[in-house]
Amino acid sequence: MIKKNDILDITIDSLGSEGEGIGRIEGYALFVKDALIGDKVRVKIMKMKKSYGFARLMEVLEPSPYRVEPVCPVARQCGGCQLQHLDYEKQVEYKQDKVKNCLERIGKFNIVMEESKANDENTIFMEPAIGMESSFYYRNKAQFPMGLDKDGNVVTGFYAARSHSIIPTTNCYIQAEVNKELLTIVKDFLQEFGISTYDEENHKGLVRHILTRVGYTTKEIMVCLIINGAKLPHAEELVERLTKIEGMTSICLNVNKEKTNVILGNQVIPLWGQDYITDYIGDIKFQISPLSFYQVNPVQTKELYSQALEYADLTGNEIVWDMYCGIGTISLFLAKKAKKVYGVEIVSQAIEDAKKNAQINEITNAEFFVGAAEEVVPEKYKKDHIKADVVVVDPPRKGCAESLLETIVAMEPKRVVYVSCDPATLARDLRYLADHGFNVVKARAVDMFPNSAHVESVALLERK
Known about the structure:
There is one protein chain. By secondary structure, this protein is of the alpha/beta class. The chain contains 10 helices and 23 strands. A hairpin with a 3-residue loop joins strand 4 and strand 5. The chain is globular and about 65 Å long.
């Protein structure tokens, strides 16, 4: 009988939803962080539940054929890249399987990998997952916490998994390469002028985080210091150093005096240049401020939205609803092919950005509403009789509210395109729609976050 603190040798036969290895002993499942399918490992049991437990990886006895050496020296401590030690092709395969398994287990669908075999209402054709050519240096936004090491030196990096302990680094292999230079400048500046870093425990100290944004196409750069105060001493000296970097476009402060783990406050103070940068997804231009939501991987965002657009199959005559539209990224893609697009989003600043982005791109057939999609859409449908030929949803991880799904059913669109960041809630919502008049025709995984366990996906539904 196994018990806590036992040290065992097990073989890993599958991966969990967060990329952790799963091995079994006497039918009992053990979850092991940093272990991979095919690894034979020595583990120590740390925590036990009735039918599963958690174990710490002590030693890799026989490595999996898919195991690779992480390029980042702090990958294991940091925890931001749960899969950097897994061959990239296998990462993409894992993510496809993750979506497939949720559709089968939660959605109760049959999944086939060949379109010709999708010959009944409960069968979904799953297209091959879309991976990246390079799995590094793809993120256009980064948020680095600031702190002090045990010797009182300024450090920046990332929080260790499930903690607020900073793993010091200035070189993150999934962020823009220029960040290394930006972080070094800010860190040296704080050290030189004796400017304090924020201490979460006593709510003292000035500089909390450094936020950077880099335009993937435009090469424009933003540096924003999040501060627990109203101003930054010697700011002109920091500006002088940062403006030597090619592409520097925006240097600003963000004020956050709250005792909270929310990174950004609402007030932005420009120090130099604009208070935004611009970038493109495809041929659509976006203005991005420190507070803007903007997809962090523009290369794969274009792939994801192109897939959504293909599934929408617009001819130029359709009325389209884009629910959870954010700053209008999908809406503006759709508007170029549709008669009219209505977007709805609960964050008022995002809707202001969406309207501005429509203006910048001279798109006049997109209209945006502020509010919860599950409240605005039913009201517009019932009171203003706004129908939809095509509905696009891109909800948060919790998926769509059932009231919104009910309205989609009542609107009777020809097609629904569901973009998802969580395969479990995708499967749940597709099952609801399949039980209320729609066929789920196709689905596809898109790897927006290489080296992590996260996956985006898109599905096409047609009204029966």
